[in-house]
Recover the amino acids of this structure.
């Protein structure tokens, strides 16, 4: 990958990255460059020099904004999980019907993965590259996110609104719906984001045996 291609990819990644993870515009630019390179090359094969080249900065200037490559990976992965948890809470807030809450939660999950393909890809592949305590922190967030879906499903089963063989496997299946979207979805494809989100919301309700 040439420097020009890397810079183009960074520009393409902007706008799909959640806000509020970095203190200033240069730090955001560095994070976005790292995200693109981690997705394209992998964490291990990316150096801080590569990231600096992508944003037109050399070592001393780069380290004014970020401490290490590991710090960047941690920002990306914890930020992704924090966004998912926050979106889930917003999606189900103020809704009493458990079926509608599951639909909203599933749609929020799918929409995030459609809009943040690089974060989703890096988050899935690079958990092995996180050092402690960051790896445990991300895994705890993942467990909390899965538990939120499991809780919804359990409430629906108790209320007689869902029919599932196991709540645990159903929660995994619903999460997998969203996690697969970044592999194939493109903004200029045959289906709009809203069409994908709505259909996948339907799929989630079918998996839950919604009544």
């Amino acid at each position: 990958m040439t420097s020009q291609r890397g810079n183009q990819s960074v520009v393409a990644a902007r706008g799909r990255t959640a806000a509020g993870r970095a203190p200033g515009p240069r730090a955001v630019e560095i994070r976005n460059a790292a995200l693109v390179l981690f997705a394209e090359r992998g964490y291990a094969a990316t150096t801080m020099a590569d990231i600096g080249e992508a944003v037109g900065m050399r070592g001393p200037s780069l380290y004014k904004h970020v401490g290490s490559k590991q710090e960047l990976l941690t920002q990306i992965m914890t930020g992704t999980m924090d966004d998912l948890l926050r979106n889930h809470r917003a999606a189900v807030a103020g809704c009493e019907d458990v079926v509608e809450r599951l639909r909203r939660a599933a749609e929020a999950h799918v929409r995030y993965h459609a809009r943040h393909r690089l974060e989703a890809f890096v988050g899935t592949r690079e958990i092995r590259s996180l050092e402690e305590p960051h790896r445990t922190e991300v895994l705890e967030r993942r467990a909390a996110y899965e538990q939120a879906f499991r809780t919804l499903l359990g409430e629906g089963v108790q209320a007689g609104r869902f029919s599932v063989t196991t709540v645990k496997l159903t929660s995994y299946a619903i999460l997998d719906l969203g996690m697969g979207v970044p592999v194939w979805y493109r903004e200029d494809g045959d289906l709009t984001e809203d069409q994908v989100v709505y259909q996948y919301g339907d799929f989630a309700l079918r998996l839950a045996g919604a009544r």
DSSP finds ten helices and no strands in the chain.
